[in-house]
Recover the amino acids of this structure.
């Protein structure tokens, strides 16, 4: 008998827990020739904003030990072009589409974007990117640079979007905080159906020959296997303090690293940087989870969630 890989995130049921992380899979069409996209549990699209954004100047990425830095700066075509041009092809793939959204200046933008997307039948869920470290929020009344660094601002943003949509709402958290549980609890209290963690960690890399930063913006977001132990620790901490599902990510490269997150308490996992190294890795992880469950004589992936033995 085939093990049951299905999981639930709010109202959304996924056939398996393997997703692709926002910003690392474009709008999915780009990857169609390299990976069987229909085998994924869900696709999370590149974060969009109300208005188009050109993003940051280059170089925008560089390799680092066991990872990479990026400072894309939320380049995207804006909401209208997303709905007209990007959404129809990805919606045809027959996989739940989770749309990642951000606000550029004013958290009210979240509400405008969420209201529009709420009307789109092909959108399965919204992921609130309150944690992108490459866009500074000078928004009113915020103590910190990112909404996800402030529990009150997180609560206010999630609550406002919650009122604007009946779709499954996921809040993506930043690891660039002292206590991620405080932010997770604020998102949960405001009505988020699920949490996604982690976004990238702020980092810097310098070329000693030129004495210049390797990416134009100086500071960027670190991702890849280098961040995995931090991400797994954060998932485990948030799992013990909250009661809504967690989508774990940060350095997942293969089945074993995906399982680390599930055993720590993640209901689903997202593959990010690994897509650049091996575009079909998400398919391989789905097959790997089936083999792992069979070997463990487990009938469901559910039985593995939070199964850490201490
Ligand atoms: C090039 C690049 C672009 C990214 N763009 C976004 C984005 O637009 N929105 C977002 O929420 N996260 C973005 N991320 C963060 C990833 O979704 C993910 O949270 C992070 O990279 C950790 O996972 P990983 O180590 O598997 O890549 C980006 C990451 C990379 C490497």
């Amino acid at each position: 008998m085939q093990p049951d890989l299905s999981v639930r995130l709010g109202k959304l049921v996924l056939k398996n827990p393997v997703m692709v992380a926002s910003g690392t899979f474009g709008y999915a069409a780009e990857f169609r020739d390299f990976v069987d996209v229909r085998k994924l549990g869900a696709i999370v699209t590149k974060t969009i904003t109300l208005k188009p954004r050109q993003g940051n100047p280059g170089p925008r990425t560089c390799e680092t030990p066991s990872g990479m830095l990026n400072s894309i700066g939320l380049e995207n075509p804006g909401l209208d072009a997303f709905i007209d041009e990007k959404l129809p092809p990805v919606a045809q793939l027959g996989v739940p589409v989770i749309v990642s959204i951000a606000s550029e200046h004013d958290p009210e933008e979240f509400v405008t974007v969420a209201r529009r997307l709420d009307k789109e039948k092909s959108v399965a869920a919204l992921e609130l990117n309150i944690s992108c470290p490459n866009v500074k929020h000078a928004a009113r009344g915020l103590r910190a640079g990112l909404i996800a660094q402030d529990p009150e601002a997180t609560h206010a943003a999630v609550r406002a979007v919650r009122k604007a949509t009946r779709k499954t709402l996921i809040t993506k958290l930043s690891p660039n905080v002292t206590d991620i549980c405080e932010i997770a609890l604020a998102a949960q209290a405001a009505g988020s159906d699920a949490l996604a963690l982690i976004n990238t960690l702020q980092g810097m890399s310098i070329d000693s020959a030129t004495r210049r930063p390797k990416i134009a913006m100086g500071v960027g977001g670190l991702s890849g296997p280098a961040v995995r132990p931090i991400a797994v620790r954060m998932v485990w901490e948030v799992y013990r303090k909250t009661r809504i599902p967690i989508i774990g990510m940060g350095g997942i490269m293969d089945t074993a690293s995906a399982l680390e997150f599930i055993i720590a308490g993640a209901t689903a996992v997202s593959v990010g940087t690994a897509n650049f190294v091996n575009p079909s890795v998400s398919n391989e992880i789905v097959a790997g989870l089936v083999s792992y469950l069979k070997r463990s004589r487990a009938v469901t992936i559910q039985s593995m969630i939070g199964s850490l033995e201490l």
